[in-house]
Amino acid sequence: MNGLYSLCFVPCTDASLPFDALQLLAPPVRLVSAALWKVLKQRDVVQYGVVEEFVTSACETVPGLLTVRHQGKLALGLRGRVRETRSALRLPLHPP
């Protein structure tokens, strides 16, 4: 199996970065993704914006990582959870 394919949910045929460059990024990306997984696992809604930013950046760096539809559904779901939590706690939707 191609190493680049294993990084993607769908087959990647046109990456913005060469595979060698992606290998150099792997350790930092693994650390960040592990931290973000912990955020999601602990349901730390306060940090969901960071998760959304990471997903957006990753999808821009590696085209085909998620489909546009999946990326949109994930972003909307994260934003919805933040809104729901903030309104339940009676916090302003947009902190200063």
Automatic annotation (TrEMBL):
GO cellular component: shelterin complex
Pfam families linked: TINF2_N
Recorded GO MF terms: telomeric DNA binding
UniProt record, GO biological process: regulation of telomere maintenance via telomere lengthening; telomere capping
Organism encoding this protein: Lates calcarifer (Barramundi)
InterPro entries given in the database record: TINF2, TINF2_N
Protein name per UniProt: TERF1-interacting nuclear factor 2 N-terminal domain-containing protein
TERF1-interacting nuclear factor 2 N-terminal domain: residues covered: 37-82
